[in-house]
Design a protein that fits this description.
With 434 residues, this protein is α/β, with parallel strands linked by helices. The protein is 46% helix and 13% strand. A five-stranded antiparallel β-sheet has the order 1-5-4-3-2. α5 (128-138) crosses α6 (143-157), α8 (182-188) crosses α9 (192-206) and α13 packs across α15 (289-303).
Length: 434
């Protein structure tokens, strides 16, 4: 009789399950990572026992929560822990992207895709073996064709489980793939060379000729060099492994022709790019190369209509001394005191909302002291909760389009506008007071 377990996971915000799942799925044809618009499902294997996870998100607020169900034939004490660890990898729920978002706020080029796909996390395949098989299967093919090959491989030799929706398979492990006949793989559509690469890789893992833990400890260049000693692994596959397997989100696989084309169109460059050109162009963003790679994937899916994007207003916090931009939308001063040295006409304000600022007592107590930041946020949010009339005009403006919250504090990370921005975004996402 099937066993059921359910529990709640709390990702680091912001988090959107739909965007994260599409970053993992890549194409609607993917039958390994299933998505019906509400629930993400996948079959996993623990101690040779297949089980299915089903993940839904109740909201996209400042405190997102995931409801997880685990269904399997055999229950054991390790199953929940294994499922949690797998979900953490698959959906990147504990990856903190706030440094990336802060950077994008001040970058005219990155700001738009970062806001459009805010909440998407960088997924990783559940095992290093699956990462390499994915990469090898998709080499020199369109992504659609590669994923269809992986579907056939999974259906042919992956462990199966019967669910209410039918029979589904887990991605095959090295033991299942090592036993595959080359001709069976050829009949699925794999080339003779790829079939040999895949079965050889599986045997190398079984015989412990590959030490993935050692590769994980190497720096980027050393890891690429080590991976390229494996048959069937070149620079693109190795860099893809670093991003999708090891979670090194600064890695942009520069040999990926599709990604290069997306990058060229996004930056409106006239000439095609090679590997060196890609990394020259990305030098200013080299810390976030892999995140750009994944955001461009989502952008391409949205442009094809595969992802249905809703228009999301951008709430921006800016110092009053920063340049005015067309994308600012209505501009609101959200401090109790007028900024020193500024004339009214310089700010081009739509309104000065004194009452939405912290009370004088709270403002003087905080004094932009980072050590008091956590408590300041709690106190200020309590003041906002008690005074909805002060912030509701901002919420209504944000429902119509972009808005900018202006502040004068020198500390750009610890000020009331940052808290107010998050407070409004929480309500725009559908949680909290209306």
């Amino acid at each position: 009789m099937p066993t059921h377990a359910s529990f709640i996971l709390e990702p680091i915000p912001p988090f959107r399950l739909d965007l994260t799942v599409w970053t993992l799925r890549r194409r609607p044809d993917n039958m390994i990572d299933r998505w019906d618009g509400q629930t993400y499902r996948r079959v996993l294997v623990e101690e040779d026992n297949p089980f299915e996870i089903a993940v839904t998100q109740s909201d996209q607020s400042a405190m997102p929560r995931l409801q997880v169900s685990v269904i399997g034939e055999v229950a054991n004490s390790h199953l929940k822990a294994y499922a949690i660890a797998a979900i953490e990898r698959l959906l990147g729920i504990h990856v903190d992207l706030m440094e990336f978002y802060r950077f994008c706020e001040n970058d005219e080029v990155l700001r738009s895709p970062a806001n459009q796909f805010r909440g998407s996390k960088p997924p990783r395949f559940p095992t290093y073996f699956e990462t390499l098989v994915n990469a090898i299967a998709c080499q020199q093919l369109t992504l659609t064709v590669g994923i269809r090959l992986l579907n056939r491989l999974t259906e042919a030799c992956g462990p199966a489980i019967e669910t209410a929706e039918g029979v589904f398979h887990a991605f095959p492990g090295p033991q299942q793939l090592a036993n595959m006949d080359i001709e069976q793989l050829r009949e699925m559509g794999f080339s003779y060379r790829k079939a040999n690469y895949l079965t050889g890789l599986a045997r190398a893992v079984i015989e412990k000729q590959i030490d993935f833990d050692e590769i994980e400890r190497l720096d980027d260049m050393q890891a690429v060099k080590r991976l390229c000693t494996l048959k069937g692994v070149g620079r693109w596959t190795a860099e893809y492994f670093l991003l999708r397997g090891l979670g090194r989100t600064h890695i942009f696989p520069g040999d990926d022709v599709g990604a290069r084309n997306h990058l060229q169109r996004w930056l409106r460059l006239s000439k095609p790019m090679n590997y060196d050109k890609v990394h020259k162009v990305l030098r200013r963003w080299d810390t976030f190369g892999g995140l750009i790679y994944l955001h461009l994937l989502l952008k391409s899916l949205a442009e094809k209509g595969i992802i249905k994007m809703r228009k999301v207003a951008i709430v921006r916090a800016k110092r009053v001394y920063e340049a005015i931009q067309r994308s600012d939308g209505p501009r609101f001063l959200v401090e109790r005191l007028w900024p020193r040295g500024m004339k009214k006409e310089q700010l081009k304000l739509d309104a000065w909302l004194k009452d939405v600022a912290p009370s004088d007592g709270l403002r003087r107590w905080f004094a932009h002291d980072p050590a008091k930041w956590d408590e300041f946020q709690q106190r200020y949010r309590a003041e906002l909760q008690a005074n909805p009339g002060a912030w509701k005009p901002l919420l209504e403006a944000a429902r119509q389009g972009n808005v900018t919250l202006l502040y004068s504090a020198r500390n750009t990370e610890h000020n009331n506008a940052i808290v107010l921005k998050a407070y409004l975004e929480q309500r725009l996402a559908g949680s909290g007071e209306k």
